[in-house]
Amino acid sequence: TQLLEQSPQFLSIQEGENLTVYCNSSSVFSSLQWYRQEPGEGPVLLVTVVTGGEVKKLKRLTFQFGDARKDSSLHITAAQPGDTGLYLCAGAGAGGTSYGKLTFGQGTILTVHP
Amino acid sequence: KAGVTQTPRYLIKTRGQQVTLSCSPISGHRSVSWYQQTPGQGLQFLFEYFSETQRNKGNFPGRFSGRQFSNSRSEMNVSTLELGDSALYLCASSKTGNTEAFFGQGTRLTVV
Question: What are phi and psi of A108, to 5 degrees?
Answer without folding.
Answer: -125, 120
